[in-house]
Amino acid sequence: QVQLVESGGGLVQPGGSLTLSCVASGSIFTIYDMGWYRQAPGKQRELVASITSRRDNTYYAESVKGRFTISRDNAANTVYLQMINLKTEDTAAYYCNAAILLLGSTGSYWGQGTQVTVSS
């Protein structure tokens, strides 16, 4: 019914930049909050950033403030995560999440993840 597909991950040197994208498709009526999570090996999945549907409120984890920027294009059902000044500790699988209203029900949906590796 709903698919979230991430892209934009890869290998980058410390201090480098990447922009992740996540496109939602399917029988979507409305997308509410969207967010990016990450999970490093041996660690719990953590919320990195989130954005409300009207883009009037954003949240950032303390560890990424000032370096990551979340944005969204509602017309394209897409959320972005711009990452600059990347550090080795940002290495993780990054997952997109969205609260989506379908016809008659609301659910939380996840993408399959995209790997970000920061290494020299």
Based on CA atoms alone, the radius of gyration comes out at: 14 Å
- Give the helix level as a range of percent: under 10%
Number of strands: 11
Low-confidence stretches: none
Q: Estimate the strand proportion.
A: over 45%
Write the layout of secondary structure elements.
Layout: E1 2-7, E2 10-12, E3 18-26, E4 30-39, E5 46-51, E6 58-60, E7 68-73, E8 78-83, E9 92-101, E10 106-110, E11 114-118
Parallel strand pairs: 2-11
Antiparallel strand pairs: 1-3, 3-8, 4-5, 4-9, 5-6, 7-8, 9-10, 9-11
Structural overview:
The chain starts with a strand and ends with a strand. It has strands at residues 2-7, 10-12, 18-26, 30-39, 46-51, 58-60, 68-73, 78-83, 92-101, 106-110, 114-118. It is globular. It is mainly beta.
Keywords:
mainly beta; single chain; 7-stranded mixed sheet; 4-stranded antiparallel sheet
Question: What's this entry about, in short?
Answer:
By secondary structure, this protein is an all-beta fold.
